[in-house]
Design brief:
heterodimer; A: mainly alpha; MetI-like fold; 2 domains; B: alpha+beta; Rossmann fold; six-stranded mixed β-sheet; four-stranded antiparallel β-sheet; 19 strands; elongated
Chain lengths: ~575, ~350
């Protein structure tokens, strides 16, 4: 006779170990503290800053100290400039992004992976570096143009210090967002649908007009909306291009107000960031209206790319795409490198004058850049690792639980995702300006406030790869482990964590990549000794040391490329959709 | 002696009709119960409640003297000493075949030589000894199925649950896996609960078949019993092939009907008497020179015989088997040797 199971032998104690649960609930099997822990973290990171922002805004209005900001001509000018540059940037993003998306997703051009990878780079390169590179490419002092002998005469204006310049660079920076949204829509478009249209007698052009374009519309609209919202909240580009020309947009207005600190400042910046949030929300509402009635569920085979054969035009299209990439990526980066190699400002770059002095300066002499390196590496690695502690349990709960809890978590996570970073930064200033209750310690002015703001800003970035890993994991893998006798921590260690590990790795690298180069949040929150790499580049450029700023930017770009390459080597182990430049 | 007892088991997910409603049944120790029913009938929910993944809204599940689940409490799955073969097999892709099979042992603190010996035995039983160091991704569907089975085998669980384990396999593999399950059941002596929508699988494997429909238990009996004496049209239509005829019968007519009664009932004029459902198995419709002349409306060659469809005088269809082809439209004499009033 077979031996009877262990737990049957425990005659009385066993029953006490039964879990008490609500009638009809599913036995979840996770420790009791998990749900409160995740909810508390998400409340502190997502809801609390927004509540302080609303409170400061209202009290600013009520006390009358800050209400003046809403009637100042400077504010109106900033609103107008924000709307112009964000809309202009959106149009340019849509033009470039759509061209690349259609070419990569629908045609038979060669080198798609390389093209996608190169096209995604502008999004990964921090905006202040993009702006700096373009300034170095186009102005009368451009070492690259001087070396080539085509620089405009000294004293002629820098063409990018204008509304058009800001729009153009916002467009270049955010074109990858349109590309991603549209490509996602197009790669879901059914190959058999296109083939059926061809067999029905439609020419390639008609297929494009009647089948592909309507199916691509939702992706295009969504991409345009993201580009617009990102343009509204961008700080790096208008800071470098707008401030020298006296062009103020809402994010730079907050920056200058905070620099000239006064009694009503907190109320004022709360109101200005509310304006930014309102404009962003307006863009998203427009998107909703444009999208309504356009929910085309794909039926039948999808995923397979519908290939249009370009025939003899293929080489022409490839050349055009390469030319655009050269203009928006290669030339500015070349200019940046050239600027970092000149011995002094204004000296033309030749084989004789080339010098590594700038690198030597920032790596070995300047304490400011050295502490910026230390700060950014600390902030980025702490945010990347620390966020996993919240992201993994949150993703686990959102996938395992249905109903109210999952919905609440989803809404909390959406808040920082939908808000421009500058609004979040202001919210954090307002939350932590006063000393913490009970502890009586002020975080304002320390590196910790930047870290907390990073936690909030990059929660969505960290969560996404982990979430897709959980979504693609068969829930019975965990159930099988439970029936094998493994308790919560045991099956976490043996089954769940090994399976989400590659996605968690991608999440760490992505958060690190973005956080190490971030400017918007730290520009508002830094103080002496806590400057980040983004702030260092901005300050060096602001103080006229464009050679040092360029050298630092070159190092930053190299780091970005190295991290993207690291992600690329992980690619085969990652769930689909984690790496934006891959299909 | 330990029986698995479901007592007025109910599960309401909160969307109108309860998924499982008032199901009471007892699986005797070492029994092999097949839960049979169309998709959405609640059979998988019963299985998941037994495993402990869902908690009942009402009623209880007991194993022998021990309460496993009721509406207030549930013993977590990891403490039930049960095992399950999932429809997707649920093999952990980051572990080798041996690690997958040995994981329940590892959790119970078994290691070293004992671990190797027990895993080796389990793999030998499913004939996968040579595959111990491979990853599940390198196996075929049938091999993965056998790994999942070996994982159930290794700890001698009290109850083994199988959730449509053959649904993803092709016809040929199904037959050989059925044989493996039968051997597995004999060797392990575990109580087994097997969920399927395929009645031939259920009949071939189980000691008892429970038919569910719309969340309720309709009938539970041994396979031969449920085939010969089904209760109601749901079971009659689901088990085996057969025609359900509506014929006039007296109120107290016997359940088992012979040819004279059937002949009278089939031949009577429409509109006469109260009509009742009668199940007629095709093997009980036989060519008979003294039988009734019925028109053949379809004749399909099935290899070992011909499947015929006959039209009764009032137009109802009757299935029959024949040894020779009969041209469609031709009449032939048939007798119905027995029928079963549902």
């Amino acid at each position: 006779m077979r031996s009877r199971p262990r737990w049957l032998r425990i005659s009385n104690g066993g029953l006490l170990r039964l879990r008490r649960a609500k009638p009809g609930a599913s036995p979840a099997g996770e420790p009791r503290w998990l749900v409160p822990f995740v909810l508390t973290c998400l409340f502190l990171l997502c809801a609390l800053p927004l509540i302080s922002l609303a409170k400061a805004g209202f009290s600013g209005l009520a006390s009358g100290h800050s209400i003046g900001v809403l009637t100042e001509p400077a504010t109106y000018a900033a609103i107008r400039n924000t709307l112009i540059t964000a809309t202009g940037g959106m149009l340019i993003s849509v033009a470039i992004g759509a061209l690349f998306a259609f070419a990569v997703a629908l045609t038979d051009i060669r080198g798609k992976l390389t093209l996608s990878f190169a096209f995604m780079l502008p999004m990964m390169i921090p905006p202040q570096v993009t702006a700096l590179a373009w300034v170095e490419m186009t102005g009368p002092a451009s070492p690259l143009l001087k070396t080539l002998g085509i620089a405009p005469p000294l004293g002629s204006p820098q063409p990018l210090y204008s509304l058009f310049g800001i729009s153009l660079l916002l467009g270049v920076q955010h074109a990858p967002l349109v590309f991603l949204a549209l490509k996602a829509g197009l790669s879901a478009s059914p190959r058999d649908g296109v083939e059926a249209a061809r067999l029905s007698g439609a020419s390639p052009f008609r297929v494009f007009r009647d089948i592909v374009a309507p199916l691509a519309a939702p992706g295009l609209i969504a991409g345009a909306a993201i580009a617009f919202v990102s343009g509204v909240g961008n700080f790096g580009i208008p800071a470098i291009l707008g401030i020298p020309a006296g062009i103020t947009v809402l994010p730079t207005l907050i920056y200058t107000r905070l620099a000239s600190f006064g009694s009503g400042t907190f109320g004022e910046i709360a109101l200005i960031s509310s304006l930014i949030a309102a404009i962003a929300a307006m863009g998203l509402i427009l998107q909703q209206r444009a999208l309504s009635g356009k929910d085309y569920r794909i039926i039948g085979l999808s995923g397979a790319n519908a290939a249009f054969s370009l025939g003899r035009f293929r080489v022409a299209v490839e050349l055009a795409l390469a030319a655009i990439l050269f203009l928006v990526l290669v030339a500015p980066l070349a200019a940046l490198i050239a600027s970092s190699l000149v011995p002094a400002y204004g000296v033309p770059l030749t084989l004789k004058t080339v010098s590594l002095r700038a690198y030597e300066e920032i790596l070995f002499r300047q304490t400011m850049t050295l502490s910026a390196f230390t700060n950014s590496l600390f902030l980025a690695s702490s945010a990347a690792l620390g966020l996993l502690v919240v992201a993994v349990p949150a993703a686990y709960l959102m996938n395992r639980r249905k109903g109210v809890l999952a919905n609440t978590l989803g809404i909390l996570i959406e808040i920082p995702y939908a808000l421009p970073g500058i609004v979040l930064a202001v919210a954090f200033i307002l939350t932590f300006a006063a000393p913490l209750p009970i502890l009586n310690v002020s975080l304002y002015g320390t590196i910790w406030i930047i870290l907390i703001a990073y936690f909030s800003s990059f929660l969505a970035v960290s969560l996404k790869p982990v979430m897709s890993a959980f979504l693609q994991m068969d829930p019975s893998l965990e159930e099988a482990a439970r029936l094998s006798g493994a308790g919560f921590f045991r099956r976490m260690r043996d089954v769940i964590l090994p399976l989400v590990a590659p996605a968690a790795g991608a999440s760490i690298i992505l958060v690190f990549l973005i956080a190490a180069n971030e400017l918007t949040v730290s520009a508002l929150l830094w103080s002496a000794g806590t400057q980040t790499l983004g702030v260092a580049i901005f300050n060096l450029d602001d103080s006229g040391s464009s050679d040092l700023a360029s050298a630092l930017s070159v190092l930053v770009v190299l780091m970005v490329m190295a991290l993207m390459a690291a992600l690329e080597t992980l690619a085969n182990y990652l769930p689909e959709g984690v790496l934006p430049w891959r299909n | 002696m330990a029986q698995l007892i479901l007592n007025h088991l109910t599960k309401d997910f909160g969307g109108g009709r309860p998924a499982v409603s008032d199901v009471s049944l007892t699986v005797r120790e070492g029994g092999f119960l097949a839960l049979l029913g169309p998709s959405g009938c609640g059979k998988t929910t019963v299985l998941r409640m037994t495993a402990g993944f869902e908690q009942p809204s009402d009623g209880s599940i007991d194993y022998g003297e021990r309460r496993l689940s009721d509406a207030a409490r549930a013993l977590p799955p990891e403490k039930r000493n049960m095992a399950m073969v999932f429809q997707s097999y649920a093999l952990w892709p980051h572990m080798t075949v041996a690690e997958n099979v040995g994981y329940p042992l590892k959790v119970r603190g078994v290691s070293g030589e004992t671990w190797r010996r027990k895993v080796g035995e389990a793999l030998a039983l499913v004939k996968l000894t040579d595959y111990a160091e491979r990853r599940p991704a390198a196996l075929s569907g049938g091999q993965r199925q056998r790994v999942a089975l070996a994982r159930c085998l290794v700890t001698s669980p009290d109850v083994v649950l199988l959730d449509e384990p053959l649904a993803n396999l092709d016809q040929h593999l199904r037959k050989s896996m059925e044989e493996t399950f039968r051997i597995f059941h004999e060797r392990s002596g575990a109580t087994m609960v097997y969920v399927t929508h395929d009645q031939s699988e259920a009949m071939a494997l189980a000691t008892d078949v429970a038919v569910m429909s719309e969340g309720r238990l309709v009938q539970m009996a041994a396979p031969s019993e449920i085939y010969a004496r089904p209760e109601g049209t749901v079971v009659g239509g689901l088990i085996g092939r057969g025609s359900i005829l509506k014929v006039p019968l007296a109120e107290h007519a016997p359940r088992a009907l012979a040819w004279p009664q059937l002949r009278e009932a089939i031949g009577s004029a429409p509109g006469v008497g109260h009509r009742r459902d009668v199940l007629v198995r095709p093997e009980h419709v036989r060519p008979d020179p003294l039988g009734m002349a019925l028109e053949v409306t379809a004749c399909v060659y099935e290899g070992e015989r011909f499947a015929l469809t006959l039209a009764l005088p009032d137009g109802q269809a009757l299935k029959a088997f024949g040894d020779t082809a009969i041209p469609v439209g031709q009449k032939a004499n048939f007798a119905v040797v027995s029928g079963w009033r549902l």
